[in-house]
Amino acid sequence: MKRNSLITAAALLAAAGAVAACAPDVGGGGSTAGGSTASASAAPANNAGGNNASNCTNTISKKNLPVVTFWGWYPNMQLVVDNFNKQNNEVQVCWTNVGQGGDEYDKFQTAISAGSGAPDVIMIEADRIPTFQIQKALVDIKNYGFDAVKANYSDGAWKDVSIGGAVYGVPVDGGPMAMIYRKDIFDKYKITPPKTWAEYEQAAQKVKDAGGPLFGDLGANVPAVMMALQIQKGANPYTYDPARPESIGIKLNDQASKDVLDYWGNLAKKGLVGKQDQFTPEYIAGVVNGKYATYISAAWAPGYLTGAGVGKGKDTGKFAVAPLPQWDSANPVQVNWGGSAFSVTSQAKNPELAAKAAYGLYADEESLTDGWTNQIIFPLNLKALNDPKFVDLKVAFFDGQQANKEVYVPAANAYKGMTYAPFGQYYYDAMTKQVSAMIQGSVTGAEAADRLQEDVVGYAKEQGFTVQ
């Protein structure tokens, strides 16, 4: 199949599947599925953008320097851009907020199709990078100063923004996963944080037998969580190399994937976990009222929950966090949910200057500190991850627990990264459909995995991919 057919397919996917990312994205898997900026949505400042530097949200003071245009939606982006411009004497950044997540992706897709109108640098969730890369909309920045900043991020963080040997973004924030739990429920039923998923099920059964609440929740609308737990057990959903854009490996029904789906399906069948979609008023009300003993989520969750009203009033000080339970305690695997990057677009006037801006934005101490102070984002820059102020932080949501030191930083450091598909949104939607069927009891986990494999492979072939 010709490459143009694949590009067309990716364009349609980007347009049709661009669900907002940094508000709770019930279909996607990035930092918007309740991700890193879920608690900090910002409305578009205007619809200007692209390579037009005449209508910036920020004020550029060094007017004699070349300007790089930038789209991004973090709530403190004004501070981030001002800090970069203040400290840089080679290039200035003109920032515009054209919307967050899907709103921005729609505008970017329009610019890609038109061949103009895109910014020099754009904020993209890591799992969306392949969708735009296959359309040749992003630049490999490996030859534009990568070696100078490589040591600022872990290998896992770089892998999430890389395809093959090329690098298509600068990591900014991520979502190392963990288990948030209610201390009052654990104390009441004499439960210690489970270290394995087998122990998790045992604890859930103990609480149920004693007449306690649900131990957790299996929401069909968070497919990225299921994917992460399958990867934790050893699954490798996709293999993809941009050098062979017409070919992709898809393995969604291997034994590890089936085992994880069967595990969660059985928990739901036994009534040990709930079946409520997450990021809904009903779910949040359940969290506030102690309906769930645990919440399997990512490092951005404290910010999201606080913004949603959790951890206040009668449930203040009742939450703690523990490492994510493991499938094999002898071979622990850390996984991630969410995360964003700054990418250079193929419409950049000067890719080298654009890369300099992408590398430098959100890399200074003041911006990083402002970003994590209230757990709004979980930074991936090692200057922050190794900063004693961040590591030793006593997190108010967790009643003063040093959550970063005990849980999130070790998880981030051990994360190895993963390979995303160029049609990730279709996969997330298909996973949601199958998990929903499994929750309702119409299929087993293994059957859901087989149906998912058939669905996604069929779709990939329809779009012109050769499936390995």
Question: What's the layout of helices and strands?
Answer:
Blueprint: H1 3-16, E1 67-71, H2 77-87, E2 92-96, H3 102-114, E3 121-125, H4 129-133, H5 146-149, H6 155-160, E4 162-163, E5 166-167, E6 170-182, H7 183-188, H8 197-209, E7 216-217, H9 223-233, E8 238-240, E9 247-250, H10 255-269, E10 273-274, H11 281-288, E11 294-298, H12 301-307, E12 319-323, E13 336-344, H13 351-360, H14 365-372, H15 382-385, H16 388-391, H17 403-414, H18 424-440, H19 445-462, E14 466-467
Helix pairs in contact: 9-10, 10-19, 18-19
Signal peptide: 1-20
Keywords: Signal
Pfam family, one: SBP_bac_1
Q: What's the CATH architecture name of the largest domain?
A: 3-Layer(aba) Sandwich
In DSSP terms, counting alpha (H) and pi (I) runs of 4 or more, how many helices?
19
Number of domains: 2
Uncertain spans, ≥5 residues at pLDDT below 50? 14-48
- Please tell me how large the radius of gyration is: 22 Å
Could you give me the name of the CATH homologous superfamily of the largest domain? Periplasmic binding protein-like II
Secondary structure: helix percent: 25-40%
CATH topology of the largest domain: D-Maltodextrin-Binding Protein, domain 2
Molecular shape: globular
Quick one: biggest sheet? 7 strands, mixed
Spatial gap, N to C terminus: 14 Å
Class based on secondary structure composition and strand pairing: alpha/beta
Strand content: 5-15%
CATH class of the largest domain: Alpha Beta
Mean pLDDT across residues: 90
Give the tally of β-strands.
14
